[in-house]
Each structure stands twice: as structure tokens, then as C-alpha cells.
Specification:
Length: 271
């Protein structure tokens, strides 16, 4: 059993992550991590994919088929399953995550910081502006880890999406931001490994050179899955393709939490 941190980097493309995230690349090269390609679920939109990642269900089943659907999740999900098992949940994330798992619509003041064991996300730190600095969000996540040792933490930065939508994916701004995220993550991942955490780094969708996503091209849907297991030798770049639908059951199985029947896809295999 291991505690888990999921870094869901909004609009982190597979190819850009592989080419520009050198610390993660080092872990893969040294077989201290596994790398898979995810051919993302559809539509390649944010709110539908937050729900797909957390429920292990496709959008046609969970019903969050567009960003405009503002309501709580109606399906079993990682936060609900982990907190129901008596474990500690936390998130530093865009406010849509608070709307899906804590309360909707989001109240910018009351919902900004939550420390409430009765909520699905017990310790939440949320933001509403797409240009909110990732480095501040990473620090907030690191603080939650030190303070509460959550069993499951979601770290959800918006910087790749913001730079991609503003400058397009074929831009120095988008690529350089991948380098920065990797640089900010490196010391945190080292600390979290020492604390015994399993860490996964993935994206909700990709983005194209027009700065758009929502469609079906590889640019819009292919994202990486880096998987780091403390003290367990990995396989490096596995060359394997896995599904967004496997993330939720994989995380629950790592946490030793029963997998709900609605999560029909098998956990990803590490070895
Ligand atoms: Zn997104």
C-alpha cells in the first residue's frame, strides 16, 4: 500500500512532456519511473476529463460532457472512495474540481480553502484564474503534504493550458513552461519519494498549435503518464498505451481502497 499524489497538469502534451521535462526524463532513463502514453478520452475538454480521470468512467456515462455542466459528480470517484475508507484527501486545484467533488456552484470566498473531514476533498486549496502561478500552487500542495500527510493528493496546475491557449502549442512559451513545471516538481518529487509517496504525472488533454483542444487529433488527446513508485525499480519508457479510464482504479488499488463496480477498466500494471 502506498499514498498517492496525482499531478494532473492541464493540457500537458505527451510529446512536449517527453522532450522538455528533463528531471522526469532522468527518472525514466534510470528506470526509477515508468512512462506510458495515454490516448486521452473524449471530448478533450477539461471538466469532462477531470471527471473521467476521477471516476474511471467515460463522459457519456458520467454525464459531464461539457465544461458548461456545473454540478457535483454523481458517480463513485477517487475522493469519495478514499474519504469513505477513512483516509485523508487533499487537492490544490482549479475551482471546477471543488464543484465536482465538494460543492457547486463555487463560492470564491467560502470554498477557497477547506479543512473539513466531512467533505470528499477534506483539505482543498482552490483558484479561479487560469493564470494563477503554478509555482505558488506547487508550494501549496507541498505544504498540504507536510501538514496533513494526505493519502491522496491531487495537484492540478493550469500553466500549460494557459500558455498553450495564449501562444499555441508550437511556441517557446508553451514548451518553456513544461521545462519550468519539471524544474519546480523535481525537488518536490524527491521529498515525496522520501515520504513514501507514489507519484503520477499526467494531463487531462493535449492542445494544438491554434491553442485549442476538444477534438480528436493526437495533439489534442495524447498525454503522458509518468509513474514513480518509491523504492521499486521501474521499466523506464514502456512504450505502452494506457487509458485515462485506468487511472482511478490504479490509484484506488495502490491505496488499498475497494474499487467501485463502475470503474470497469483494470489498473495499469507497473511491472
Ligand atoms: Zn484542461
Amino acid at each position: 500500500m502506498s499514498k498517492v499524489i496525482l499531478v494532473l497538469s492541464d493540457a500537458l502534451r505527451y510529446d512536449v512532456a517527453k522532450e522538455n521535462m528533463g528531471y522526469l526524463g532522468h527518472l525514466v532513463e534510470s528506470k526509477l519511473a515508468n512512462l506510458y502514453k495515454i490516448v486521452g478520452e473524449l471530448p478533450s475538454m477539461s471538466r469532462p476529463m477531470y471527471e473521467t480521470v476521477h471516476t474511471g468512467a467515460p463522459s457519456s456515462m458520467h454525464g459531464i460532457v461539457a465544461n458548461s455542466i456545473v454540478r457535483r459528480s454523481s458517480m463513485p470517484n477517487i475522493f469519495q472512495a478514499v474519504s469513505s475508507a477513512g483516509k485523508v484527501t487533499a487537492a490544490t486545484a482549479y475551482y471546477w474540481v471543488s464543484e465536482l467533488y465538494n460543492s457547486a456552484p463555487y463560492d470564491r470566498i467560502d470554498d477557497k480553502e477547506t479543512d473539513d473531514d466531512s467533505l470528499a476533498i477534506q483539505h482543498g486549496r482552490f483558484y479561479t484564474e487560469d493564470e494563477y502561478p503554478d509555482v505558488e500552487l506547487f508550494a501549496a500542495a507541498a505544504r498540504l503534504v507536510r501538514r496533513f500527510s494526505p493519502d491522496y493528493l491531487l495537484l492540478h496546475p493550469m500553466g500549460m493550458d494557459y500558455h498553450g491557449e495564449t501562444f499555441g502549442s508550437d511556441s517557446k512559451e508553451y514548451r518553456n513552461h513544461a521545462i519550468r513545471q519539471d524544474m519546480w516538481l523535481a525537488p518536490l518529487i524527491q521529498e515525496w519519494i522520501e515520504r513514501g509517496y507514489t507519484i503520477m504525472v499526467t494531463g487531462d488533454h493535449g492542445i494544438n498549435k491554434d491553442g485549442a483542444h476538444g477534438g480528436t487529433t493526437p495533439e489534442q488527446r495524447e498525454v503522458p503518464l509518468f509513474w514513480i513508485q518509491p523504492k521499486i525499480k521501474g521499466r523506464g519508457d514502456t512504450g505502452e498505451i494506457v487509458s485515462h479510464l485506468q487511472i482511478a482504479p490504479t490509484i484506488l488499488s495502490l491505496l488499498d481502497v475497494p474499487i467501485p463496480e463502475t470503474m470497469k477498466h483494470p489498473p495499469v500494471s507497473f511491472d
